[in-house]
Amino acid sequence: MSQTQGYIGRFAPSPTGPLHFGSIVVALAGWLEARKNKGLWLLRIEDLDPPREKPGAPAQIMSQLESLGLSWNGTPLFQSQRLDAYQAALDKLKEQQQVYPCTCSRRDLPPIYPGTCRSRSFTPSLPAHSIRFRVPPVVVTIDDRVQESRGSSLQRDVGDFIIKRRDGLVAYQLAVTVDDAYQNISHVIRGSDLLDSSLKQACLGTALDYPPINYAHIPLLVDQQGHKLSKSTGAAAIPDGKPIACIRQALNALGQPLFPEIDDLESLLQAATEAWSMDRVPKRLTLAAPDPY
Fold this sequence. Notes:
Blueprint: E1 8-11, H1 21-36, E2 40-45, H2 57-67, E3 77-78, H3 83-95, E4 99-102, E5 130-133, E6 139-142, E7 150-153, H4 154-157, E8 161-164, H5 172-182, E9 187-191, H6 195-207, E10 214-218, E11 221-222, H7 243-253, H8 265-275, E12 285-286
Parallel strand pairs: 1-2, 2-3, 9-10, 11-12
Antiparallel strand pairs: 4-5, 5-8, 6-7
């Protein structure tokens, strides 16, 4: 993509099912921040893990966003169509000797990778292997609009991490880093469960000579028992036919004005954009009731 000045954000769901309320809270925060800054809000479908994907999920996700008035700019980007770009980035890292093959089995490894295969080279006779990024001995730091700034010595806290899986699939960290640079993303707003991923991606971005990104990590929405809302824990899809109630509940979760006097979706989103402030987003989000609608 050509270089574009100004604010460019994105929403990047995986097509593992329909959007739930926690997804909508993050999407709305990103949409409002982009509109407030007169910028772009792009849609990316992160469809690189076929075993986990649900048939029809991309169309369902787009339909849900449209029903809530959360329109995106341009054409959605599908990661499954970007495999050549990921390979080019991987080739660059190979040339710089910043990656190596790893034949370790995950079940035999401690939480922090000990560098067992660091001395391995790429040879034609290699057995099945993943590819790990050789983490440099530096502290990676990101500033955050919502959470406190975060710094980590990835070499100490994480170890070299996988950027291409043993089964041949491109790993999340590499694909997201490459695509954020390709789409000229300036700001990333997403859930706080991805803070550690942001540190890895910032480190990868530096290795690939990509520009830095501004981050805001929205706290995870949890139920009254403290369990996060997610597809993996069975969070229900947002219901059809209740867009105003859904947007208003999401505004409430984000600490924003609710505008109860407005009963038109377009007008509600316009008022919410004008009033939007990231400074109001609470450090922790809690779902007030099992059914937010």
